[in-house]
Each structure stands twice: as structure tokens, then as C-alpha cells.
Amino acid sequence: MQPADAQRLIAQAVVPGEAWADLGAGRGTFTAALSALLGPGGSVLALDRDARALHSVRGVPGGAPVRTLSADFTALPSLPPHDGVLLANALHFVPDQQVVLLRLLELLRPPGKLLIVEYDMTRASAWVPHPLGFARLLTLSADLGWPTPQKLAEQPSRYHPQPIYAALITPLLG
């Protein structure tokens, strides 16, 4: 995915100057998108368990500064609260998504924005072992007693016939 595509997917959720965590940041496509959207007054924490991938993570000129941390987002270390948490193509690797989502509440300060980017698919594959299609996200959010996720954008996928979606949940409002 190109950085401009990542920005388009998440732009509606991001306010310049906020502090965000990008969990499962990988090589940083969405980290760079956050940096650009947040501007110099914001901040981004890029977290991934693959320390080698984090060497590629960068902000953008004139964007929010980026800090990296090598850790597994399913077993988060103690971190300060953020305005938003982004999980882009990360939750489909997690068998118990509900447990991880509940744990993420510790990373959010009210009103707490949780931004999910995933393939809108229902069948597992070798690359998406635990799919989180938008319909499943709606059910999961309802099961947690959270507000209904808002689908912000979609984009065709290069790898699957189903599109990629971005959805925003504000769990601390509910």
C-alpha cells in the first residue's frame, strides 16, 4: 500500500496535534501516514515485535515525531495513554481479538479512538488466519458493549478480492 492510500483510509479519524500509537507497525506505512496527518504538534509511537522491521519506520518531514518500541501488542508493556490507537492489518493475526481489544483500553485517554484497518473478509487464509471483516467487527464491538464502529473508508486490495476498510470505534464513550 502506498502512503497516500494509507492516509486516505485513516484521515477522518486523525486530528493534528494528537498522540497516537501504531500497534503492529511493521515497516511503517501507516506510521508515516499518521506522522503526516498529525503534523509537528503530534506524536506517534510505532510498536512492533519485529525489531528489524522497525528500522524502516520513519515519520515524514514536517510531520509528527515518531518513536519506536519493539514489543508484542498482544502483551503490552505499561505505556502512557494516547488519543488514538491504530491497528492496521494486525488484528487478523490474533486468535482472541476481544481480549486484545479490551486490553487496549489501557492505552486510551477519553474519548479514546480505536482505528482498525483490516481486510473485509470472513474466510481465513494463510496470510489472514483470523479475519476481522467489518460485519465481525460490528458484532465484536456490540459484544464488548462499545459504540457501533463507523466505517470511514474502503480501498481495493492488491492481495484479496475483498476490500480493505478503515473503521473508527470510540470505546470510552459507551
UniProtKB/TrEMBL annotation:
Methyltransferase type domain residues are 22-116
Give one Pfam family: Methyltransf_11
Note the Gene3D superfamilies from the entry: Vaccinia Virus protein VP39
Q: Is the keyword Transferase assigned to this protein? A: yes
Q: Which GO terms describe its biological process?
A: methylation
Question: Could you state a single Gene Ontology molecular function term?
Answer: S-adenosylmethionine-dependent methyltransferase activity
User: What's in the keyword line of the UniProt record?
Assistant: Methyltransferase, Transferase
Looking up InterPro entries in the UniProt record yields:
Methyltransf_11, SAM-dependent_MTases_sf
This chain belongs to which protein, by name?
A: Class I SAM-dependent methyltransferase
Organism of derivation: Deinococcus irradiatisoli
